Each structure stands twice: as C-alpha cells, then as structure tokens.
Amino acid sequence: MPFSEMDFVVAGPGARDGIRKCFGRAADGTEADVVRYMADPQDEHFARLGVAFTGLRGRPLQLIDCQNLFCEVDRYVWVAHPDIAGISARSRIKQTYRQQADAMPAWFSPRWQLNDPSGQ
Questions:
Q1: What single-letter DSSP state applies at residue 110?
Q2: Residue extents of the structural domains in the chain
Q3: pLDDT exceeding 90 applies to what percent of the chain?
Q4: Which pTM does this prediction carry?
Q5: Contact criterion met (CB below 8 Å) for 86 and 20
Q6: Is the pLDDT of residue 13 over 80?
Q7: Tally of helices (H runs) and strands (E runs) in the chain
Q8: Average confidence score pLDDT of the chain
Q9: What is the DSSP secondary-structure string of 13-29?
Q10: CB-based contacts of 12, cutoff 8 Å, min separation 6
Q11: Longest dimension (CA), the chain
Q12: What is the C-alpha separation between 77 and 100, in angstroms, rounded?
C-alpha cells in the first residue's frame, strides 16, 4: 500500500485505556492525537528524558508502535493497580503469558527492510 506508517493510526481499546491511565479523562476522544504526540517528536522526548534510543533496528517508532506501547501500559497498570479503571471497563485479561519451548522467528514486512540478519 502506498502510504507511510506515520499517516494513520486508530487506538484500540487497550491503547485507549492505557492513554486514559497516563493522561486521565482529558485525553478521551483525542487518543490518535496523543499517539501522534508520542511518535512525531520522539527524538525530543528521548533527549529530554536522557534516553539513548536508536530505534528498533535503527527504525524510529511508528504510530502503531506507540499505539502498542499504550496497550502494554494498560496491561501492566491493570495488574499492578487493578483499582484504576480505563474506558472499556474490562474486568479480566483475556490472555495470560505462557512460555513457548521453541523460539519464534521474527518476521517483518519486507517494506521495512528489517529481515536482513545484519540489521542493514
């Protein structure tokens, strides 16, 4: 598809809950803007926080990556602070972590040019 990963994002229910848990009710309805705020000036955020982040194999965080980060925030906060409610009012985590005996190979879209083992 001829568009950039930075053109469009829709925050799913987990990301919406994670955003609510980070920014409160003021973020309701502006989730895509919050995700974009995390992705667009990411270099400024990392510098401000003193974080040396070189990307995912050199690839900067995309909108979908930041959307997924908020989903992970929701999961961790849900376990650590079950009293903090999100938007969705979900009452249980659907999946639990189960370790796989065999390592799963990573696969990336060829468009990202990340499948080269050398990372080039």
A1: G
A2: 13-112
A3: 52
A4: 0.75
A5: yes
A6: yes
A7: 4, 0
A8: 86
A9: HHHHHHHHHHH-GGGTT
A10: 67, 71
A11: 45
A12: 24
